[in-house]
Hints:
Layout: H1 2-16, E1 19-27, E2 33-34, E3 39-44, E4 49-60, E5 67-77, E6 81-90, E7 105-111, E8 115-117, E9 122-129, E10 135-136, E11 139-148
Antiparallel strand pairs: 1-11, 2-10, 3-9, 4-7, 4-8, 4-11, 5-6, 5-9
Amino acid sequence: MHLLIVLTVALAFAGCNRKTIYHHYEHTPVAGWEKNDTLTFTVKAKERAVVQRDVELRISGEYPFQRLNLVIEQTTYPAGISRRDTLNCDLIDPQGNIQGQGLSLYQYRFHMTDISLNEGDSLCVNIRHNMKRELLSGVTDVGLRLRTY
């Protein structure tokens, strides 16, 4: 029992030690987010660190689907290392319950794999949707948050 308490306290302190090094949103057009409209985020690393990446979304009640599929392409410079991921964002559960926080505008956060950055690295992240519709209504903002451990 004492071990469980010690572990819980240790995890709580470890969770509090994360430091946000980048947090930015890009707005999508009011008329809708076009499939080929890529949102770009550029980050310069100030120190060597393992970084937790989160994609954040703000979605209105006008969004017509239960899920949003995103293509995330990132390149780390100067090494030129590229990576492409697909992020499947479940916004509404099978019972019809909204999974985000909010009332008329819902906020979501989706964790991606952690990455390592070296001091002086630049990270360029491009995000676009990969839905069958060319024009998506209801997605108001897409954000990127990077935190160190």
